[in-house]
Amino acid sequence: xxKNLALVWRRIPQRYRLIGSLCESCNEKFFxxxxxxxxxxxxxxxxxxxxxxxxxxxxxxxxxxxxEGYESMxxxxxxxxxxxxxxxxxxxxxxxxxxxxxxxxxxxKAFRIMNKDGKEGVINYGFKFIIDN
Length: 133
Ligand SMILES: [Zn+2]
What we know:
Helices cover 11% and strands 35% of the residues. By secondary structure, it is mainly β. The chain has a domain of 79 residues: CATH 2.40.50. The strands form two sheets. The protein has a five-stranded mixed beta barrel. It has a three-stranded antiparallel beta sheet with strand order 2-1-3. It starts with a helix and ends with a strand. Bound molecules: zinc ion. The site of zinc ion (ZN) has 8 residues, from loops.
């Protein structure tokens, strides 16, 4: 299992480190990474951008029946997080009570191990966030 996790890390490091892109021409930020800006096209100057990992809950759902590899986590929350810098991403909200999560709740990225037992590539939520009171 350690081997699988290492493999995932190597393949898509920017996803785990929350590195996206910044267009220096129009200041638009993108996640995941883009190689060109849809607004500026060829005029855009794209460079790597490290997101802060802070954001807010844009929408969420409670997952009661978890897929294979996640059974021990259920129930848990899956949310669309709007990063403070703008982009939206899908994340699991961990260590969260029912009354803590709501649309607009402040969250920040947590550093947690992904699914320990699930097969690589089945379902990978990528990020875990915690409520940031
Ligand atoms: Zn641009």
